[in-house]
Design brief:
Blueprint (H helix, E strand, L loop, with lengths): L1 E7 L5 H12 L2 E4 H11 L2 H11 L6 H13 L6 E5 L5 H13 L6 E6 L2 H15 L6 H24 L3 E5 L4 H16 L6 E5 L5 H12 L2 E4 H11 L2 H11 L6 H13 L7 E4 L5 H12 L7 E6 L2 H11 L12 H24 L3 E5 L4 H19 L1
Parallel strand pairs: 1-3, 1-4, 2-3, 4-5, 6-8, 6-9, 7-8, 9-10
Helix pairs in contact: 1-8, 2-3, 2-4, 6-7, 9-16, 10-11, 14-15
């Protein structure tokens, strides 16, 4: 998801660049002033509260601001991104915006600062005042507005500088030149956005096959806890010996073992386009752990796929796999297969609900050939990819 904040003193040209960026990237425009006027016009509860404050000469509180912005964001759940014009204006509002975007499992991509010399801003605003009809658009008033802007917004600029998201660009020049510079940064930052996929489903649902197809299509690093554990067993490490005894019973490997393996593989791939996780998370605790691991690299889960299959079909598939070279010891006993499926139902289903509540879950029918199953996955995967990028 592409989320941009456009920053600049009055007269810096934010409105013009906003229109161009919105059109090119299909962004939803969010201006607190526009939304407030809209809410007041509609006579909503928030609008009436804001109107009474404005008429009394006061500033609308952050509590009202956050509610109107959240309302606007939630009313556009399928938006590929948002453009914030004139928000955040304060250090507190910067934290508010971060929290709002975090609820949508996204974050700010970049904050553009259109840097225009004060005298140039003054000249533009005076010229605009000639046609605005506003009696308060005098040079003294305009200078005061510019001074207040500098004082109030400096901490916001520092907040985003510290996060590496602050991009100052000269706001003097042709509209096309300025817009081209902004789009160059957008393309640069989008290349840094990771596409992270979680594959859920019962053992035998075909997760491995579809995970590899997704990894190839989107150039993702495929992380399978099962394959990591097999590697440890093959090496004969102490971890491998512990894992072997656990797997022989069909039980789940303890979190402390799995986490270290996943963390190691993420660290090995700093230039990855994203990761696809198969076999993790299996529990609600692991879902929280994965959120933490991804947050450390300033990322999150983009798409979760739950492949559903009837129990009898799962047993048939696992039994058949037990007769091939790909078999694991727990594939060779029907009682162990049934135990694994029962354990999955008890422990793993809360994970499905976790991602459903986050709005990143897609459930797919896993019956049929791998090609038939992929045909059901392709469209929602592509939509999730576009939202993430």
């Amino acid at each position: 998801m592409l989320n941009i904040a456009l920053f600049g003193a009055p007269g810096a040209g934010k409105g013009t660049q906003s229109e161009l960026l919105m059109k090119k990237h299909n962004l939803v425009y969010i201006s607190t002033g526009d939304i407030l006027r809209e809410e007041i016009k509609k006579g909503t509860e928030l609008g009436l509260a804001a109107k009474s404050i404005i008429e009394a000469g006061g500033l609308v509180s952050d509590e009202i601001i956050v509610q109107i912005i959240e309302k606007k964001i939630l009313s556009n759940p399928d938006a590929p991104g948002f453009l914030f014009d004139g928000f955040p204006r304060t250090y507190v509002q910067a934290y508010i915006l971060e929290g709002l975007l975090l609820k949508m499992h996204t974050s700010l991509t970049c904050l553009f600062f259109l840097d225009v010399p004060q005298e140039e801003s003054l000249k533009r605003l005076i010229k605009r005042a000639e046609t605005s009809g506003r009696t308060d658009d005098t040079e003294a008033v305009i200078r005061n507005r510019l001074r207040e802007y500098q004082e109030k917004t400096a901490p916001v600029a520092q907040y985003y500088k510290d996060q590496g998201l602050f991009f100052p660009r000269e706001g003097v020049g042709s509209i096309e030149e300025i817009n081209s510079k902004l789009n160059e940064i957008i393309e640069q930052e989008l290349r840094k956005v990771l596409f992270n996929v979680v594959l859920l489903g019962y053992p035998g649902a075909g997760r491995g096959t579809q995970a590899r197809t997704l990894a190839k299509k989107y150039n993702l690093v495929y992380l399978s806890t099962g394959e990591m554990l097999k590697e440890e067993i093959k090496k004969g490490s102490q971890v491998g010996k512990t894992v072997q005894s656990i797997c022989d019973k069909g039980d789940l490997v303890p979190d402390e073992i799995v986490i270290k393996l996943i963390e190691k593989h993420i660290q090995r791939n700093p230039e990855a386009n994203g990761f696809i996780f198969k076999g993790f998370p299996r529990t609600l605790v692991q879902a929280y752990i994965l959120d933490g691991l991804l947050r450390r690299i300033n990322s999150s889960v983009s798409f979760t796929l739950d492949i559903e299959c009837p129990t009898l079909e799962l047993i048939k598939r696992l039994d058949a796999r037990g007769k091939t070279e790909r078999r694991m010891k727990y594939d060779m006993e029907t009682s162990t297969i049934v135990h694994r499926l029962e354990q999955h139902e008890q422990i793993c289903l809360p994970v499905v609900e976790y991602y459903r509540k986050q709005g990143v879950l897609t459930v797919i029918d896993g019956e049929g050939t791998p090609e038939e199953v992929w045909s059901r996955i392709e469209e929602p995967a592509e939509s999730a990819w576009r939202r993430a990028r």
